[in-house]
Amino acid sequence: MRSLLALALILGTAARAGESPLASTQELDAGRRVYQTQCASCHGSRAEGAPNWQRPDEHGEMPAPPHDREGHTWKHADGMLYRIVRDGWRDPFNKTQRLTMPAFGRTLAPAEIRAVIDYLKTLWTPEQRRFQEAESRGEPYPSEAR
Ligand code: HEC
After folding, report:
1. Domain architecture of the chain: domains with CATH
2. Is 127 in contact with 113 (CB distance < 8 Å)?
3. pTM, 2 dp
4. Tens of pLDDT, residues 124-146
């Protein structure tokens, strides 16, 4: 119920600002399911990130960051976020070579990767969403996900 209310508020704000509307409710529901089954174990069930996510852990690896408004996911364009989820990611300064953020390109379909990213956008402030939307004009989702 609370998330429905939040979505209604976000949609209202988007309409007022004359922005392109958010993804459909159906896509966002699918994205939320993907998040809970594939991402929450590391990034937190409320996308709050791992504890002490801002510092390297005892292995010298960066922990999973939040995806909500406290994190920095909103600073990346759609194209970049899509690549991170499809191909995986590790901080170049990690002390290990391990791919700490796993690649989901073989587990998730392009539409599922897009849905989970679009779901994360519902966790951001209107200002963060506007910033991210502008960034994404220069680096949109790849054609496989459109
Ligand atoms: C096994 C744990 C694990 C799982 C599962 C996981 N991640 Fe991550 N993820 C990480 C770690 C660790 C990082 C940080 C990597 C670094 O910076 O070195 C990360 C980083 C990211 C980033 C880039 C950082 C940012 O927010 O700017 C995105 C985007 C991301 N993950 C999305 C996802 C999504 C979406 C899923 C589910 C489909 C997912 N992750 C599942 C561990 C995980």
Report:
1. 2-145 (1.10.760.10)
2. no
3. 0.88
4. 999 999 999 999 999 999 999 98
